[in-house]
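Let us work through a complete example step by step.
Step 1: write down the sequence.
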Amino acid sequence: MITGYNTDVEFDGIVYHVQTEDKGLDTPVILSLVYSGGAILASKRASYDDLVARGFDESILAARLQRQHKLICAAVHAGRIEDLKQLGSRESAPATSSVNAGLEKEPSAAEDEPKVEAEPTEPPVENPEVEIESAGDRFSISGDASEHSGLTVMLSGSHELRGGSSVTLRLNVLRRGSGGKERVPDAKVTVKTLGSNFTSQTTYATTDARGTVVVLISLPDFKDGRAAVLIRAEANGEVAELRKIVLPSKS
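Step 2: predict the structure and record it as tokens.
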């Protein structure tokens, strides 16, 4: 299953989080979002209706998704944040406009260049999702809580995540309020298992009235490479993420 990429890109002392994902065959769109401090600054949508119409090919979709993610990351790295914001504004225009019509198809290299494309200054990463130990990673990879803006996602209990095991994660989503921390019901929670030597897995859940959700995940059995679990909570436009390292399977 194609899930997507998550990469942190730093420019001028600010770390931006770029997320690109496939919305699925029911909504055939590749969506890229640029976050800063939990707020969405820019977005890029690319329809792949043409791919569905002529016979779905997952390898072609994967290549398109990776290319779009690299383009957005390169644009952020080059400081072209305003260009990305304008691109998102054009995409929100009525579907009948010529600008929007041009963005709803797979762009050519010539179409991309004046909008977002910039030559990468470092070698492309084969799978940006698993660069979990990079210096630019703004999310904790070993803590039990991560907070952006007013939203917090917390992992209850002490967990050793190891390949080949099944783990029950009890998650709490909270928000800063006038009286302190408040529980957030109906928050959308995504748990992704990412690895350099296995296919990513994704589980979706929603918090209950107490802002709590319990998620059972099975960690792939692996002996080499790196892996992590990315926990993402979203509510009312706010986002919080937490990463936990997954250790290799025991011999």
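Step 3: interpret the result. The radius of gyration is 19 Å.
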